[in-house]
Amino acid sequence: MAKKIEKTTESHISPFERIKQTTDAGTEYWSSRDLAHVLEYTQYRNFETVIEKAKLACFNSGHRIEDHFADVSKMVEIGSSAERAIKDVLLSRYAGYLIIQNADPKKEIVAQGQTYFATQTRRQELADERTEEERRILLREEMRRHNAQLADAAKIAGVVEPIDYAVFQNHGYMGLYGGLKQEDIHKRKGLKKCQKILDHMGSTELAANLFRATQAEEKLSRDQVKGKDAANRTHRQVGAKVRKTIEELGGTMPEDLPTVESIKKIETQKRKRLDKGDTPEKRKRE
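Now predict its structure.
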């Protein structure tokens, strides 16, 4: 893993911030060797017990251990220009948080670490939530635009009447959702009839539906599909292809993804933040 160590001599900077490292891609991580030193563990083998407890907590929380704990080895000098390999673990912020929770609570530095990692973890959670909101807003707007283009392509193919277009849309959903129609998805997602399915999708589900819509639109036009029945079959086939791709990649089927709050509420909140001058650029500067 390529790394660059953030160095500082300012005394008010947290010791946990000083040992934080980043990959070339900007991903933060901590070395277990560095963390053991800061936490005043003179014997690394004693700290390894803390790491194992943290790994178990990670597993019990439903997270993949390998996503947060990366076992590596590094060379250290032992004198006379000789080197030997020692074990190290590269830790995510979440892994650091779990380690702090399992470290010796009698140490004053551990209490400082608990405050640091709890604060940093919460900040990241808030940033991730904000990022998900922004992805949803972008994808929902793209979905509106491409649904209009899909409707135009379907009309050229022969899907003219509103009732016929509703049937056409159902075929796309049936392909992507394993045979479920719009009303079936409503029930499965716990939505009311007045609520739009697309408004309550997370970014992953929206992206799958956007791919379905764009590919169906292109296939209708490219293959010059003619007739309502042929258009319906095409839309369902495209939806099924997208579903198959998700399955092959080991993803969650769209009908099993969680229902989230209305995008309309998110859009309203965003407008209020913009009115107050809260922008992504401002948050980056902060």
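The CA atoms of residues 246 and 253 lie 7 Å apart.
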